[in-house]
Amino acid sequence: MQTPSDHAYPDHWEADVVLRDGGTARIRPITTEDAERLVSFYEQVSDESKYYRFFAPYPRLSAKDVHRFTHHDYVDRVGLAVTIGGEFIATVRYDRINADGMAASAPADEAEVAFLVQDAHQGRGVASTLLEHIAAVARERGIRRFAAEVLPANNKMIKVFRDAGYTQKRSFEDGSVHLTLDLEPTAESLAVQRAREQRAEARSVQRLLAPRSVAVIGAGRAPGGVGRTVLRNLLDAGYTGRTYAVNRALVLDMRELDGVPAYRSVAEIVAQTGEPVDLAIVAVPAERVPDVVADCGEHGVQGLVVLAAGYAESGGEGRERQRELVRQARSYGMRIIGPNAFGIINTADGVRLNASLAPQAPAHGRIGLFTQSGAIGIALLSGLHRRGAGLSSFISSGNRADVSGNDFLQYGYDDPDTDVVLLYLESIGNPRKFTRLARRTAAVKPVVVVRGARHSGSAPPGHAVPTTRVPYATVSELLRQAGVIRVDTVTELVDAGLLLAGQPLPVGPRVAILGNSESLGLLTYDACLTEGLRPQRPRDLTTAATPQDFCDALAGALRDDACDAVIVNAIPWVGENGVTESGDGEVLAAALRAATASAPAKPVLVVHVELGGLADALAAATSSAPQATGQDRAGRPAAGARRDVPPTGPGTAGPLLAGAGQDDPPATPAKVPATAGRIPAYPAAERAVRALAEAVRYAQWRRAAAEPGKVPQYEDIDESGAAAFIEGLLEEAPGERGVTLREDDARRLLQRYGIPVRPTLPAPYPDAAALAAARLGYPVALKTTAPHLRHRPDLGGVRLDLADEYQVRQAYTELTDTLGKPAELQPVVQAMVPRGVDTVVRAAIDPAVGAVLSFGIAGPATELLGDTAHRLVPATDRDAAELLRSVRTAPLLFGWRGSAPVDTAALEELLLRVSRLVDDHPEVVAISLEPVVVAQHGLCVLGAAVRLAPPPPRTDLGPRTLPSY
Questions:
Q1: Confidence of residue 670 (pLDDT cuts 50, 70, 90)
Q2: Does position 211 have pLDDT exceeding 90, yes or no?
Q3: Closest by CA position to 489, among listed 497, 481, 499
Q4: Which residues are registered as beta bridge partners of 91?
Q5: Which residues contact 352 (CB under 8 A, 6 or more apart)?
């Protein structure tokens, strides 16, 4: 948190939060203007809760109490309130105390804390959320411990403290429990906080997707229009809850629209039926939305889907309208999908919700789909439908002013009806959080992402997101590191989703290829090699192959221990009369399913060319309920797993619909055994292979993630000394822009982390060069450090292996005669080091992404090709090993073309030390080590640049909050 002046109102403490039940509330400092709110709040608290707070009957607050509880200095005395609809539902207060328990000021670092939660809101996680926020405030003000006195019977409050995860002590004194909490965050407190965040945010999405009642606000009196269309879609899908139509212009005698009870407002619904409305679909013009939001908020609506346009996508005025929409909805505890949304769908049998503009609800399946674009949402729904695929849930968020892809990941993580999560994103509002959530979700089920607007250089209109300096390629690689399957097009998104939802994960990259077309088999073979798979030679069954031949060949391939996946190629075959036989596709599909039913569980894909009925038959609907899994949690086939037990459950999606290409007609269901799996079919070999390659890489990541690496500890690291050194350097350079360290300061800082940097001596004239060489000892190198020549040996700015003074002076003359005057070249002398491979190690902190560690082979070719690998900090030993092997030029490190392998173990250690430095000291916002010469034994860092600055705020380590508006 930023630190304002001590007595100014700390508006940066204000935050919107999601509570345990999925509702939202606002936390803010209590001010002198809150006296009436405080009194009203206290009157609604039960006598028992008052007794627990004050340890005695305390029916009302005195004027002195009200003054004390509303007047704070925001340093030694702080009060926070939780509000919904502008009214208090809970308060917390701390008072700084000394060792004797008396009121004190800094440097006293302990405070007494007390909570009070309205009885109607107890059990919603209000107190635990307040504890996170008041603890962050206290740490900002130099308080390190909380003390609390709690009556033994107040089990709820004791549990709040006990479950927070902080280091604590408890004792029983004078009839009460005395608790002391150390406010320094711990691994346990962070884990508790993130688990609560997941449950709350998942619940907030679940409330939107499974409402008990829906009101369509703006349903027109005449057929047509957005509101009436959504109402019609709700009815056609068979929504199981209560449905209401709302139109303020209804005539007095109009009581129904499309057979649905019609009202003029939500207030009228509640008044006449006595039933609450859970979800409101807002289909009125933007200028009327505020009145609708107020009507919904004042009558208990839990969430809104705002279809109206005219918000941030329309310019500055629309952006302000969008901010006000979010602020207004959150003030009532409601979450928003939209504005400018396409709608939401939940195909669960107990819900059957189609609150969208999609004319036909998708079939029930096990794919969860989130999009930030209505147009892309339409395309994806249509494409999935044509290929016979089903969905568990769908959200098209439009401007995603509130509910985002992060929320959908939280929901999809433990949704039992979702086995694969597909995301179309045009912006990532909190990349650091998204990466964390994606890693956790990908550990149990596949997450496939396609990113739109990735080369535009700015967020799409309507998306309020922080800017990032990190290139898209870097963000993409970090997503892959987190286990995300990143694809480039919506077609690839569907292709991958179909495979992952209907087939088990492959245990390796070995692919069997069989079919009745030699040419198609060769295309598949080449595509496998291109994608890094290990294909067997294609098996040509010839054009005379019968469905039984396919069945036998596929069964044999699946039983082959040297095969991890099978791609079947099929083209039409000609009968004796010279024409294609009718029903070829259906017969072949039945044969392929028969082969998989009794074989070991391995992924099977079909590539077909103009084979009528095959894709439709393969996509035939079967039971989509979860069944016994045929794999373990790492994606490996379980012992004795057979195809007659299709894999389902988290990460091993159950049998779903599969189908043909985007241009194929809708799949026609066929009667097949309920246990038969669905085999995905593709109209091109390249598409099938690309989907399989993504599944192979994801399965490999899953297996590696099951055994995560470790962040090693080095005894020679001087963390405290480095902290003091950094503090001193920043004090010498005040301001938020920071400072680039002088060469000697950078060397001293790096040395404290066991990273020695070879010294360089300036050589502004020939005599200085000779003296420097004598001081360092021959042989030496003479090189320029001018920005346009630095790290560019190809331009001739470096002279190596200078053995004596004569060679140094001669090299100096050559450089200055060829490239320019010494003042322009800025020559330096450096001792020679053992020959090796020149590499580059960098680390930087981006406000949106966090700290990123990067590695590459030095040289212009690497820079031109962008051959640099990245990992998030803190890096583990596994990350370091993978990092240096991830670049395309990595063979240079391992003995390329007969050269000697270099000391990669030393290079991995250097990467880990740099990672530790940046992780331990966020003030180190950038490090560049270039070149790092890695020899057969050891390495040498020849150049280093370090930049310090006040660290950017770590939103992922603070208390839980929603993005601010």
A1: very low
A2: yes
A3: 497
A4: 81, 116
A5: 237, 238, 239, 240, 346, 361
Helix (H) or strand (E) holding 345: strand 343-346
Q: How far apart are the first and last CA of the chain?
A: 17
Structure tokens at 234: 């709700």
Tell me which of 759 and 575 has the higher pLDDT. 759
Query: How many whole angstroms separate alpha carbon 53 and alpha carbon 664?
Result: 68
pLDDT of residue 658: 46
Rounded Cα–Cα distance for residues 630 and 224 (Å): 48
Residue 656 in this model has a pLDDT that exceeds 60: no
Compute the distance between CA of residue 887 and CA of residue 926 in angstroms, rounded to an integer. 21
Q: Any idea what DSSP says for residue 323?
A: H
SS3 540: strand
Contact 308, 286 (CB under 8 A): yes
Residue 462 has pLDDT above 80, yes or no: no
Please report the DSSP string for 266-313 in residue order. HHHHHHHH-----EEEE-S-GGGHHHHHHHHHTTT--EEEE----SGG
pLDDT for position 795: 74
- Would you tell me the crossing angle of helices 743-751 and 719-732 to the nearest 10 degrees? 160
How far, in Å, CA of 617 to CA of 623, rounded?
A: 15
Give the confidence band of 725 by pLDDT, cuts at 50, 70, 90: very high
Q: What phi and psi, each to the nearest 5 degrees, are found at residue 337?
A: -105, 120
Interatomic CA distance for residues 517 and 568, integer angstroms: 10
Residue the block writes with tokens 């949690």: 633
In the chain, pLDDT over 70 holds for what percent of residues? 88
Distance CA 585, CA 350 (A): 35
Q: Say which range, 1-15, 352-366, 488-502, has the weakest mean pLDDT.
A: 1-15
Q: What's the confidence (pLDDT) of residue 675?
A: 31
Residues in the chain: 965
The residues, ordered by sequence, that sit 6+ positions from 574 with a Cβ below 8 Å of its Cβ are: 543, 580
Query: What is the arithmetic mean of pLDDT over 933-956?
Result: 87
Strands 145-150 and 110-117, bridge-based pairing: parallel
Q: Which residues have CB under 8 Å from 624's CB, separation 6+? A: 364, 365, 366, 390, 654, 655, 656
Per DSSP, the residues of 843-886 read EEEETTTEEEEEEEE-SHHHHHHT-EEEEESSPPHHHHHHHHHH
Confidence (pTM): 0.84
Give the span between the Cα atoms of 798 and 621, in whole angstroms: 69
The C-alpha atoms of residue 105 and residue 98 are separated, in whole angstroms, by 8
pLDDT, tens digit, 9 for 90 and up, residues 129-168:
999 999 999 999 999 999 999 999 999 999 999 999 999 8
Confidence (pLDDT) at 43: 95
DSSP 228-249: HHHHHHHHHHT--SEEEEE-TT
Please state, in angstroms and rounded to a whole number, the distance separating the CA atoms of residues 213 and 111: 46
Does residue 874 have a cis bond before it (omega within 30 degrees)?
Answer: yes
pLDDT tens string 597-631:
888 899 999 999 876 667 777 776 443 333 333 34
Residues 943 and 926: beta-carbon distance below 8 Å: no
Q: How confident is the model at residue 53 (pLDDT cuts 50, 70, 90)?
A: very high
Give dist(CA 941, CA 929) in Å, integer. Answer: 7
Choice between 638 and 158, residue whose per-residue pLDDT is larger: 158
Quick check: 691 and 651 in contact, CB under 8 A?
Answer: no
**Residue 658, SS3?**
coil
291 phi/psi in degrees, rounded to 5: -65, -40
